[in-house]
Amino acid sequence: MVAEDNWTTFDARLDIKASIQWIRKEHGHDPIYTIAHCMGSVAFSSGLLDGTIPANWILGVTCSQVFMNPIWATLNLAKALAGPIPLINYIKCFGGNWFSCSSTMEDSYFQQLVNQLLRFYPDARCEICNNVSCHRCSLIFGRLWNHNNLNEATHRQTNRFFSGVNMTCLHLLMRMGTIGHVTGNAPLFHPLTSPKNIHRLKGIPFFLFSGSDNKVLKSGEYDKDAGDLEG
User: Fold this and answer.
1) Domain-embedded: residue 154
2) How far apart are CA 44 and CA 62, in angstroms?
3) What is the pTM of this model?
4) Residue 183: what are its φ and ψ, rounded to 5°?
C-alpha cells in the first residue's frame, strides 16, 4: 500500500499538482475552483505556499476545517505533548512504522493491548462505542465524527474508509498541529508560511469554514488563516 511508504502531506502536494495538470490537459487551461478538506487542505496549502502549485491555476478555494495553520484540539495536543516520550515513539517502537485503523485476529500482542486500552479513551458518553476501528481512528486522528450523524451501517464500515497512517506522516502532523503552521518534511521542518510564500496567494478568493464541535482541530483556528490571507 502506497500510504505505508512514508509519504506525508507535504509529499501529497505533488499528487494534487499532478491531478490539476491532468484537468488542465483534458479540459483546458482555465483556472479551476477547488474544495479542500482537513489534511487534504493542509497538503494543498503546502503546494500553493512553496510554489509547487502555481496560484494562477486556481480560481478560488473553499477550505473545510483547516488551511495553512493547523492547531490540534485539546486532546490531540495532549497526545502530542504529554510525557517525556511522545506517544508516537511507543507506537513506532512496539507496533512498527504503520498504524492501521483496522484490527484482525492476526494482530500482534501490542495491537491487541492497544485495542483494549482504547476502551477507556476519554470522550462524551454519547460518543462511546464498541467499534475497534472507530477507537483506533480516534487515537491517531482525534474523533472524526459525531456518532449521532452516522447510521449503524456506516459506523460498521469505518475500517473501509480509513486505512491507517505511517509514522513519518504522523510525526509531521503532530509537529505542525503543535506549532500551528504548515512545514516541510523532517528533519528540517522548514516553515512554509513566510510573508513571501503567503504573498503567492494574493488574489485567490478563499471561503473558510469549520464545525464548532471539532475534536481533531481547534475550533476557531481560522482566525490565524484569515489574518495571514488578509495581510
Assistant:
1) yes
2) 11
3) 0.92
4) -140, 170
